[in-house]
Write a structure and sequence with these properties.
The protein is built from 31 helices and 15 strands. The protein starts with a strand and ends in a 15-residue tail after the last helix. Helices cover about 50% and strands about 10% of the residues. Helix 16 (about 420) links the parallel strand 9 (about 410-415) and strand 10 (about 430-435). Helix 4 crosses helix 15. It is of the alpha/beta class and about 675 residues long.
């Protein structure tokens, strides 16, 4: 069977066309064809076909369309027989097909091969691949023509841009080998369809000029200038103006240097491209960009084994799908350290190099790296000159994927904020992408098939091992219990442990017991877990980044939770503090958990990591006094609490000065001067 998507969606079997049914049924096959031999979940199909306008019958509609496709694609199959072409498994469906039998996959493969040959300085061979790629398009039709849904629209846009980019690259090689006259018809046709695309007009002008049609070349420029002025109020770009000036002057650089076109066409000769050739060969670059990481890596054996297994599995996959892993966790837990350590261990599996991008998730929202800028950085690392970068995100993403097509590379995207940052940076092929993030990235899991590794603090034994490595075994000998207490005061977070170890190294006479005692008091503990003049080495600064990124209501709940000293946080507590319903409180608690500002302690129950609880108490001071009083009153008002949360269960966990004398008399902790504080984990 063969599928055509570069035009209207059509299927062929043994030379005969297979009718694929109504538009939404063709949309379903289009989604499955984009990921052949992979299970695509029903919810993903619903999202791709209906987008935000999902009817209640959407899931049943998917099953109905799949049944119709099975009848069309496998007419001899019995109702209860297992499918051979269209299979179901794990809550989704898969189209089992050779990728080369789908024209989109074949187009992308030929295009990538053409780019590689162009980069090797073999324009004649590259043209053969370009012709094979562009020949798969059926006339002037758009891809996924007459197919509804947001996925089809997105693919139409992506593939149209990729086709135009391929034509421009094809034109560059046509000019390089002296076939300017042959390039004119296709370029003229596309200029008529894309009148504002200046790059196409650049190629058309040069092709006309080299073919002896100087007046026509100048006419294209005049038309371009008029059109840009009328439509956009702009003048032509600098490259187009420079070419126009050279044509007027008859500049010698514009003359083709090819002397024997027939010999080149027959493969018997070579030719040097003209100096004005618009696309320079991209040099072969093997990037090795992993930054230095801190010494003393300990623990994480389970996570490293998981990464080892995932990359081993990825190397044997026949389909061109990368391994995508998201390492997520709270600030200071060691996400970047794990990613870099794993990347170095797995480097031999990715002989084509390692790429690294800091996505600046810890920066302010205005300074977070966009996918557009990240692609500029990556393409520069792969040898693409800044002047040759496409001006749009789709163009950069397709160039990036094409350059990495067929290569085994490892890409580390450190400190990502959201899926929109990451998706354009995922190459095709048997690559591996490690993403670190302070937030749960469910979108990458659901839509992009990412694997999740949720990083927890080190164990007590691992924490002591790290301290021992950093300050020396002699310093720790005989003080193992004190080292373990200090580790607990540091929340067993690698960043906090390193800061504490640096303090011990700076004060050789300070014992571990003394430092553990200094850190025992919550007040001032975050001040001690910071390095002066280095924001990157401060837990408070790391927490502030996550807190500042919260939506307003979640941030308010985080502040108010700083007033509550209970070990477990339920939706009832959240609802009382916010003065909202349980559903809203559950939602806000989920937002805090997704940002790793709360830990899940059971179904619907959360708790603070001890250091985050201290930070929340600090943030509570930002809440106006009357709002704090109102929140405490709601928490103490039995009339607004369910039977699951009595007054006696709340009072011990409020600051004593915040509870009135009458309320204190009701507390089972009556007579105790100090309210029980949050236990260290």
């Amino acid at each position: 069977m063969r599928l055509e998507l570069l035009g209207s969606v059509r299927a062929w079997c043994d030379g005969a066309e297979v009718l694929l049914g109504p538009p939404k049924q063709r949309a379903v096959v289009g989604v499955l064809a984009s990921r052949v031999n992979e299970i695509v979940g029903v919810e993903e199909i619903v999202d791709a076909v209906w987008g935000s306008a999902v009817p209640q019958t959407a899931v049943n509609g998917v099953h109905t369309y799949v049944a119709g496709l099975r009848r069309a694609l496998e007419p001899g199959r019995g109702r209860r027989a297992s499918g051979g072409v269209l299979t179901s498994s794990g809550g989704g469906y898969a189209l089992c097909l050779d990728p080369d039998h789908v024209d989109v996959a074949l187009f992308e493969r030929h295009h990538a091969a053409a780019r590689r040959l162009h980069g090797l300085g073999q324009p004649q061979e590259a043209l053969g691949e370009f012709d094979a790629a562009l020949g798969l398009w059926r006339g002037d039709a758009n891809a996924y023509a007459n197919v509804p849904g947001p996925f089809a629209e997105m693919e139409r846009t992506r593939l149209a841009e990729l086709r135009l980019t391929a034509v421009e690259e094809w034109a560059a090689d046509m000019l390089a080998v002296g076939r300017h006259a042959e390039a004119v018809p296709m370029l003229s046709n596309l200029v008529a369809r894309e009148p504002l695309r200046e790059r196409l007009r650049w190629f058309l002008m040069l092709s006309l000029y080299r073919g002896g049609r100087r007046a026509h070349a100048l006419g294209v420029y005049r038309e371009t200038r008029r059109l840009l002025n009328e439509e956009l109020g702009l003048e032509p770009g600098t490259e187009l103006q420079a070419l126009h000036a050279k044509i007027l002057a008859g500049h010698p650089d514009l003359v083709s240097r090819v002397t024997d076109i027939a010999a080149i066409r027959e493969g018997r000769g070579t030719a040097a491209p003209a100096k004005a050739a618009p696309v320079d060969p991209v040099p072969a670059v093997r990037p090795a960009q992993l930054p230095y990481s801190a010494r003393g890596f300990v623990g994480r054996a389970e996570e490293l084994a998981q990464l080892e297994a995932l990359t081993a599995q990825g190397g044997g996959r026949p389909e061109m799908r990368p391994t995508l892993v998201v390492i997520e966790g709270a600030p200071g837990v060691g996400k970047s350290t794990l990613a870099l350590h794993a990347a170095r261990q797995l480097g031999d599996r990715f002989p084509d190099g390692q790429l690294y991008v800091d996505m600046y998730g810890a920066a302010s929202r205005q300074r977070t790296l966009s996918a557009m800028d990240a692609l500029a950085q990556l393409l520069g690392s792969l040898g693409v000159a800044k002047s040759r970068l496409p001006d749009d995100l789709a163009g950069r993403a397709t160039l990036y994927r094409s350059l990495l097509h067929g290569k085994r590379v490892l890409v580390v995207l450190d400190d990502a904020v959201n899926a929109e940052q990451v998706r354009p940076l995922i190459p095709s092929g048997q690559a591996c992408v490690l993403v670190t993030s302070r937030r749960v990235q469910r979108g990458l899991v659901v839509r992009d098939g990412a694997y999740r590794i949720a990083l927890k603090p080190l164990s007590s034994a691992e924490s002591v091992r790290l301290i021992t490595y950093l300050i020396g075994a002699g310093r720790v000998e005989g003080q193992w219990e004190a080292a373990a207490r200090l580790a607990e005061m540091c929340g067993r977070l690698p960043l906090a442990l390193r800061i504490a170890a640096e303090g011990l190294a700076e004060h050789p006479r300070l014992t571990l017991a003394d430092m553990a005692q200094q850190h025992a008091a919550e007040e001032g503990r975050l001040d001690r877990l910071a390095v002066e003049d280095d924001v990157a080495a401060s837990l408070r600064a790391a927490y502030a980044v996550a807190y500042d990124a919260l939506p307003a209501d979640a941030a308010r709940l985080f502040r108010l939770l700083g007033l509550y000293h209970g070990e477990l946080i339920t939706p009832v507590v959240g609802a009382a503090l916010l003065g909202r319903d349980l559903a809203h409180a559950e939602q806000m608690l989920g937002v805090l958990a997704d940002s790793h500002l709360l830990e899940e302690a059971g179904e619907g129950v959360h708790r603070f990591h001890n250091l985050l609880g201290i930070y929340a108490a600090e943030c509570a001071e930002q809440e106006p006094a009357h709002q704090r009083s109102a929140a405490r009153a709601r928490l103490l008002d039995a009339g607004q609490l369910t039977s699951n949360l009595s007054r006696s269960s709340i009072l011990p966990y409020l600051e004593p000065e915040l509870v009135g004398a009458a309320a204190c008399r009701r507390s089972p902790y009556r007579g105790i001067d100090k309210t029980p504080t949050r236990k260290a984990e």
